[in-house]
Amino acid sequence: MKDGKFLTLGIETSCDETAVSVVADGRGILSNIISTQIGIHTQFGGVVPEIASRRHLEKINDCVDRALEEAGVCTDDIDLVGVTYGPGLVGALLIGVAAAKSIAYACDIPLIGVNHMHGHIAANYLEHHDLEPPFMSLVVSGGHTNIVNVPEYNRCEKIGGTRDDAAGEAFDKVARVIGLGYPGGPKVDKAAREGNRDAIAFKRVWLEPGSYDFSFSGLKTQALNYLNTERQAGREINVNDVAASFQEAVVEVIAEKAVCAAEEFGQKRIVMAGGVASNSRLRELISEKASARGIEVLRPSPVLCTDNGAMIASAAYYAYQAGERSGYDLDAVPALEF
Amino acid sequence: MREIRKGNFIADTEADTRALGLSIADAAEPGDIVALVGDLGTGKTALTKYIAEGLGVTEEVISPTFTIVKEYRSGRLPLYHFDVYRLSGPEEFYSAGAEDYIEDSGLSVIEWADIVADALPEDALLIHIQYADEGRRSITVL
């Protein structure tokens, strides 16, 4: 406690960001330190797990110190420690979990293991201070594509997800084959702005009627087949057109399904989360479709869309309020479900 | 692994890939390893889905690219589905805990197995998938 505020320390190390934050009363960001490894992994075309783990280990203590310092607090002021325990890379998760357990034990404060996906949704509580459940949430990132009904704090009901590749993964893979490189999402987004989204008729994959699931693997194959055919015919490939057409096929399906889900469950708001929530065309399209049906769309600013400790602190705060506690036997769960 | 038809064939349709997946599942014994090699989009994950179907796995088999490995325990044998696309080589494969899986009594299916070839036992079932013409696939079982 400091100045009557309940302080949560949030730790996130599930992928390539070492991130630590101090959050007041689950909503106010006092500090948000993010040490990214993106430059290191760019040369490999993606996250390299072993390098990621080592970097987390090198950075974690420094990030904790900086988060406390920037917030102007000391460990004695912290009331709760929240940490991502899955899903993610096992070696990377373990660094954060071990750090959080040590702090909780040394300072004798409660510990909460947070599902990374719940964290992404909670990022919206930090951005929109009036936001309260219920709402429909769309979580799209490099590892996940989910539509989640959120009836109350600390309750997340997945109603649809990917059956093969995540949306961000599809962006990464296609970006790689058209030579845009890593990270694929932002690069495809940028190239697409210069391209014609109707240039190539990639088939939208809707699956069975009424399903909120996604499939992007076939779309990836369509893009690869198109590139092969064009190259074999000796035709020049317009990278911007491929990016724009591919992106449109991905985001149109995501936007339509999210809006339909909100409508079916009677939700008046769609809350976006995850790295792909920053995709400019997805934002534009979902806003268009939602406003036509009287649904409001909220999203966090880009810094809160990427992995960060503040969103973990916020999710931990609401789990704590709901009576949850984790023990010192908390372990990393790489394939944690919703 | 029990006897399975080896050699090269052309998969004209998804049904051919499914038939191969089901026959692998049928022949699989505890501790077996299936090493899949092929470019992006050739259907490695699709083949793995059919192997899972043959084992009687009821969960949705989704791409393990993000977490490197996913486990499925609802079938006749545990299925360990690896995607080592993002690994730099055998050492990283070991440090991701791979030994615990491949020495276990399940069936391990490894996508992009060429990256970790040195870490795999000689009796692993090696499957190469390549693009053929008109959207077909050339599949070689070794």
Textual characterization of the structure:
The complex is a heterodimer of chains A (338) and B (142). Chain A is 45% helix and 19% strand. Chain A has eleven helices and ten strands. In chain A, the strands form two sheets. Chain A has a five-stranded mixed sheet with strand order 3-2-1-4-5, sandwiched between helices. Chain A has a five-stranded mixed sheet with strand order 8-7-6-9-10, sandwiched between helices. Chain B has one domain (7-141): Rossmann fold (3-Layer(aba) Sandwich), CATH 3.40.50.300. Chain B is built from four helices and seven strands; from the N terminus they run βαβαββααβββ. Chain B has helices spanning 14-27, 44-55, 90-95, 98-102; strands spanning 7-11, 33-38, 69-72, 79-83, 107-111, 125-131, 137-141. A seven-stranded mixed sheet of chain B has the order 1-7-6-2-5-4-3, covered by helices on one side. In chain B, helix 1 (14-27) packs across helix 2. Chain A binds chain B through residues 15, 44, 46-50, 53, 87-91, 142-144, 161-166, 169, 173, 176-177, 217, 220-221, 223-225, 228, 334-335, and chain B through 39-41, 43, 45-46, 60, 62-63, 65-71, 85-88, 91-92, 95-97, 131, 135.
Beta-strand percentage range of chain A: 15-25%
- According to CATH, what is the class of the largest domain in chain A? Alpha Beta
The averaged pLDDT of chain B comes out at 90
The beta-strand count of chain B equals 7
What's the architecture of the largest domain in chain A in CATH terms? 2-Layer Sandwich
Let me know the number of strands of chain A. Answer: 10
- By oligomeric state, this entry counts as heterodimer
* Biggest interface pair, counts: A-B, 35 and 27 residues
Q: Label the structural class of chain B.
A: alpha/beta
Q: Provide the residue-averaged pLDDT of chain A.
A: 93
Structural class of chain A: alpha/beta
CATH superfamily of chain B: P-loop containing nucleotide triphosphate hydrolases
Low-confidence regions of chain A: none
**Tally of domains of chain A:** 2
Count helical runs of chain B: 4
Output the strand order for the largest sheet of chain B. Answer: 1-7-6-2-5-4-3
